[in-house]
What does this fold into?
Amino acid sequence: MTFQVPDIPVLETERLTLRGHEIGDFEAYAAFWASDRTVAMGGPCDARAAWGHFCKDVAGWTLLGHGAFAMVERETGALVGQISVGKPPHFPELELGWLVMEPAEGQGFATEGAAAVRDWAFDDFGAPTLVSYIARDNAPSIRVAERLGARPDDSAPAAPFANHVVYRHPAPERLQ
It folds into this structure.
């Protein structure tokens, strides 16, 4: 049997390192999934179900060539969230997604990390387009999408989750 670990990019921003998840990330990841912050994504859930989400985010790199980046604060080494580029079989389009651990919320990490991953997706991964599926009542995520230049796209295929709106990210002008 052969096992091949994919080359997962490592991206750096002013305050963040964006890298593939490591097993040490799971405790904070499971705590996130146990919180009410995950209601729009099918949570909250126990550690067993969180493990399934974690494995899905990690396996995307091997199975699909894209996946989740752990968002780590460079100064402290703390996992502060996750930015992902993904299109599992039940998603109609490639999604740029983010989640932020509660202690790190409101510090601009989602915008900073998502901008770096968005640029990687367009420049290096070759994404022709990106969308974000955001719960209609998730004002903080809507603000992040709008800061990134994304706008609601009512003509997009329906989001894979109930009560979500589709935000489309424009390709950077350098690629148009």
User: Anything to note?
Assistant: Helices lie at 26-33, 47-64, 109-125, 139-147. The first strand starts at residue 11 and ends at 12. The mean pLDDT is 93. The longest helix spans residues 47-64.
